[in-house]
Write a structure and sequence with these properties.
Blueprint (H helix, E strand, L loop, with lengths): L7 H54 L1 E2 L9 E2 L3 E10 L3 E12 L2 E6 L2 E5 L7 E5 L2 E3 L11 E4 L6 E4 L5
Antiparallel strand pairs: 1-3, 2-3, 3-4, 4-5, 5-6, 7-8, 7-9, 9-10
């Protein structure tokens, strides 16, 4: 009669193979966990960045010049000041003074009580577009440029003044 069961060698090989499979699976699960944590951390930062650009587009679109509540538009190579309308879900549209400064880490934005830095933008320079040409500053307090551009090259961001199409 043949003996039943496994030999010691077969058991050791099975335990070793099971251990190797578990080590590989553990590494795979660890890598997936790291990827998931990285994606979860990047999500809010991307949302803040996108919301910052959306807010700036809205502020430039609702710029208020020369009305009872509006002021002037002043643009230098590193700072912009103007008035705009900002929608508040409780108070409706409110007029706010806006100051944008080209900082070392991006665009520093102050719009009424709201302040934040829009990172990821080369804020080293500001240019103003009007009459088919870009200018380094805007000295007219009674007229507006067609667009404002922060940065240069691939990281440049252009904001159009007023509502477009």
């Amino acid at each position: 009669m043949m003996p039943r069961g496994f030999t010691l060698i077969e058991v050791i090989v099975a335990v070793l193979l099971t251990g190797m499979v578990l080590m590989i699976a553990s590494g795979f699960v660890g890598a997936l966990t790291a990827i998931t944590e990285s994606a979860e951390a990047a999500g809010p930062a991307a949302a803040r960045h996108g919301n910052g650009h959306a807010l700036l587009r809205e502020l430039f679109a609702t710029m208020d010049l020369g009305t009872r509540t509006g002021g002037t538009f002043v643009g230098t190579p590193d700072r912009i000041e103007f008035s705009a309308w900002l929608f508040d879900p409780f108070a409706g549209a409110i007029s706010v003074d806006v100051a944008l400064t080209a900082g070392p880490h991006g665009i520093d934005v102050q719009a009424g009580d709201l302040a934040f830095t829009l990172s990821g933008v080369d804020g080293a320079s500001v240019a103003y577009f009007a009459g088919g040409a870009w200018r380094s500053e805007w000295v007219s307090g009674t007229t507006l440029p067609t667009a404002v551009q922060y940065g240069s090259g691939a990281t440049a961001v252009t904001y159009w003044i007023g509502r477009r199409g």
